[in-house]
Amino acid sequence: MDTKNRKVVAFFLMNVQEPVHVKALGVANVGVTTMAMILKTSVSYFTFLRSV
Does the keyword Transmembrane helix apply (predicted)? Predict the structure, then answer.
């Protein structure tokens, strides 16, 4: 595809994608970015506690 068609297809794909919704404890909506940060922090704490 040429550049113009790629831009049009990318625009349509970005508009039709549905965001992922995750609920923490069934109460609060948590975004994917927030969930990734929580998991990363949890792994860091776990690694730190294992090394002590």
Answer: yes
